[in-house]
Design brief:
DNA-binding, Arc Repressor Mutant, subunit A, elongated, homotetramer, about 210 residues, Tetracycline Repressor, domain 2, mainly alpha
Chain lengths: ~210, ~210, ~210, ~210
DNA sequence: CAATAACCGAGACGGTACGTCAGGTCTTTTC
DNA sequence: GAAAAGACCTGACGTACCGTCTCGGTTATTG
């Protein structure tokens, strides 16, 4: 949340801000989205309930901010030297994130809520989705520099393709972890990457 | 929900049952998961609130049942004669389902809630996930019969592979439709299918 | 508050009703009007806060009912055999009521609030004022029967006169007790009665 | 409230002082005691909320001051030449004051609050009650000078008597106006005065 | 055909959380 | 150092649902 606009008056406490976000993540992990209450967050953060409402319009917005802060910390793309290595790396990092109960509960819930609330969706897009998508673009760039992928010719087609790859990677990992409920380990990441790069036949060829 | 267990006494009204499920879906589409209330569903169904609790333990269970009924109706796998055609077909059917606001709101919300509640997860798995997975298995069977895929040798590997394909297809479509918020149209389905079958290079080769 | 109108549904608990009124009076005596809170009353009565709101629209209405119940108990007119005796009696009884801290706090506060809220005023009139006024009418009747006052001739004039006497007695006692803050004892009641019956000169004549 | 105490620093704005009292009275008339808020008063007076608390300890004290200023303006005793005329005059003036909505709301509320708060009661006594009582003493003095009442003999008895008359006049008028809710007009004032001077029989004699 | 058992509607019950508002205090910057 | 601005904590407000619990009444099956 942007700090206050004006310059006069008592400034908002910065400690309170981070204490609240921290408390939100803890509560989220323990209780899950629906059982999380503003009162509870306020109590954990050692802050009055009104202070929450002064800074965030409601539960949804608060949680989105709290979750977004999580992704910033850990979503980095390690340069492994090959496209396959990069994909496996980002898949494993993302999966690692989804193993933390606070992220599990929050991410899907935030998405679910955003299917109904356009303002929330925009917030989710800016705070979460776009940040992840940037990773795909960077990996693609590197692969081109290494000659693993042909240089860009049609910009529009290239953007469409990036979007597709992003949906495939993020969607599949989330589905595996949260819907199917199966672990995303190194072996699975290897198989998934082989399929992304070589397609279904390549996968079938060598189990 | 199974109808009554015992045999004596007044039987549960069957009309009430379907009226409730119908009302749940309508309310879900209008209000979304979190704003949906039992009172509201009861009022729409012309039924007392107690009747809901007599048949379902709570909101979660009711909604899962209501959503599961949706999937039964429309999830069929058309035999198009080729593996690519089958994939495109199921992608488009699934996407069509996700366009209906009641499904949009419900599916993710149910999944989100299930990340915290094992009982609910089991219910979701049985009522929704497994039913979708069956489609993948059937398609795979056909492709083998047509010689598009090699015959099964290692059963375990084959199962692992099916699971992966299922996660890729379902996950990507859901992510495209609900997270990225972009339309899943015939053109996209074609590109996605090409990538599933040929991998990233095949996709890049021909925009 | 009239019990529920309809006949269906679970009936309202009668114990709760009296427990609430009792708790209200206790809280009123301890805390006074402005510090009295619905939460507090609910806690004392061993009842959920919502139950209060189900039965009374708000604090004002609840307190009026609670106070009205007080007056019913104690406001009786003893037949002393003479008009002077009757007046002294009712003055002392009323003063005795005003000595109880719950009544002190409540009566004035209720009146104060009613100067702004016509609905509340009506409630106060019906529940408190009219009940007191009836005492004046009864005393007047007796005095006439005893020949202490001339028989009624003009009905309208008689009503006007009763109203005046009522205002004089009730107003003066309240003012003495709550505004001036002086005790209303037997001696004062005797002097006041002499003045009501004989006027200022009679009072001055014999200290 | 006494103007500034210290001598150094920025002096307190005198305009602010009267603006606040004016705003308090206006708000009181519009909203009544309980709905009146410091924030509201501050906003109306064009002053920061802090300024209020710098000058008055709280809401109660502010309102008492605001109301006391009202009484100073209008409570004068016209010399009508007779005791009856003096009483009628003061009754009508007082009633006129009670017709103003700001006074109606405020006076009773202040009294009600003071039944619980000794400090407030003292303030009310000094600022409001004593000032009214002085009128009674002055009227009594005049009546003695004119021979309408016997000269003072017993000082203590005389004080007791004044107190009684004060309670009767103020109490009855307030009760008529605020509790019974009936108008205090010239005709009523005449009847009331006759009763005060001649007692109940005198009243009954001639309707 | 009566008894019984489970249903149904209505609605009160104890709770929890909501989001708002007011009271008073504290902390900044500006005058 | 007063004043304006506004954040802060506390705690009450009235509302909305939750899931449970009586009620009076209504079907079915069983005896």
């Amino acid at each position: 949340m942007p700090p206050p606009a004006g310059r006069t008056g008592r400034p908002r406490s910065a400690e309170a801000h981070s204490a609240i976000l921290r408390a939100t993540r803890t509560a989220l992990a323990e209780l899950g989205w629906s059982r999380l209450s503003m009162s509870d967050v306020a109590a954990r953060a050692g802050v009055a309930r009104t202070t929450l409402y002064r800074r965030w319009p409601g539960k949804n917005e608060l949680v989105v901010d709290a979750v977004a802060a999580l992704l910033d910390e850990q979503l980095e793309l390690p340069d492994s030297g090959s496209l396959a290595g990069d994909i496996e790396g980002v898949v494993l990092r993302f999966a690692q994130l989804l193993e933390r109960p606070e992220t599990r509960s929050a991410l899907m819930a935030v998405v679910a809520e955003s299917t109904r609330d356009p303002a929330l969706r925009e917030r989710v897009t800016a705070a979460i989705v776009d940040r992840q998508k940037a990773l795909v673009l960077r990996g693609r760039e590197r692969a081109r520099a290494r000659g693993e992928l042909p240089p860009e010719t049609d910009e529009a087609a290239s953007a469409r393709e990036s979007d597709l790859v992003f949906d495939v990677i993020a969607g599949t990992v989330v589905h595996r972890a949260l819907v199917s409920g199966e672990p995303v380990d190194a072996e699975w990441a290897r198989r998934f990457t082989r399929m992304v790069l070589g397609g279904l036949p390549a996968l079938t060829a060598e189990g």
